[in-house]
Amino acid sequence: MENAAYGPSNCAERTAFFTAVSKGLRGFRAIAIAGGKRNGESDFAYPCGVCRQVMAEFCDPDSFLIIIGKSREDYRVHTLKELLPESFGAANLKA
Questions:
Q1: CATH of 12-85, one of 3.30.1330.10, 3.40.50.1000, 3.40.140.10, 3.90.1580.10
Q2: 13 is catalytic
Q3: 32-44, pLDDT tens digit by residue?
Q4: pLDDT (tens digit, 9 = 90+) per residue, 11-64?
Q5: What strand order describes the sheet that includes 75-79?
Q6: Catalytic residue selected from 2, 13, 73, 86
Q7: The pLDDT of residue 2
Q8: Which single residue of 40, 42, 61, 87 could bond 70 by disulfide (Cβ 3.0 to 4.6 Å)?
Q9: Which of 77, 73, 74 is CA-nearest to residue 32?
Q10: What stretches of the chain show up as alpha helix (H) in DSSP?
């Protein structure tokens, strides 16, 4: 069964995290994601579920910010917890 997810590919958000982590960087505070085009106009582009899960592995869901923008003037700011409620993360593995 097919769906809208691109399983064999790697999104820009995950590529950014994997590159940073491979270089020893941690302590992420935010990510900004620029919107894509829909019908010739900019639109909000939210991270996919897999990217949100990767963020949950390396970030505090309560304080990590995801900034989604159409332009410098038109953007939305969410916490990771808002976009990935009731997530499964490192804390669950310790229980």
A1: 3.40.140.10
A2: yes
A3: 999 777 777 788 9
A4: 899 999 999 999 999 999 999 999 777 777 788 999 999 999 999 999 999 999
A5: 30-34, 65-69, 75-79
A6: 13
A7: 63
A8: 42
A9: 77
A10: 12-22, 49-58, 80-83, 90-94
